Amino acid sequence: MSELVSIGEICGAFGVRGEVKVRPLTDFPERFRGMREVLVGRGDRVRRYAINGVVERGGWWYFKLAGVETREQAQALR
């Protein structure tokens, strides 16, 4: 999967329901609003998640990913 490009970095968990806080690495972060799924990974380990919701607040983006239900699960994606 060497053709993938990072457009955001998960910086941590937000809240207690599994949301993740994302720092955009793109000049066009508004693209996040139209995304239906995202690949999350590090190195050769990549996993696909459906996006159940995305919100922007103060330059940070908050994603609710399918299957990530707890703060601990969200924090593990950092």
Describe the structure.
The protein has 78 residues and is mainly beta. It has 1 helix and 5 strands, in the order βββββα. The protein has a 5-stranded antiparallel sheet with strand order 1-2-5-4-3. The longest helix is centred in the last third of the chain and has 6 residues. The radius of gyration is 12 Å and the shape is globular. The model has no long low-confidence stretch (mean pLDDT 94).
Percentage of residues in strands: over 45%
Total of helices: 1
Low-pLDDT stretches are none
Overall form: globular
Give a quick account of the main beta sheet: strands, pairing sense, barrel closure.
5 strands, antiparallel
- Main-sheet strand order equals 1-2-5-4-3
Number of strands: 5
The average pLDDT is 94
Order of helices and strands: EEEEEH
Keywords:
78 residues, mainly beta
Brief write-up:
Helix content is 8%, strand content 49%.
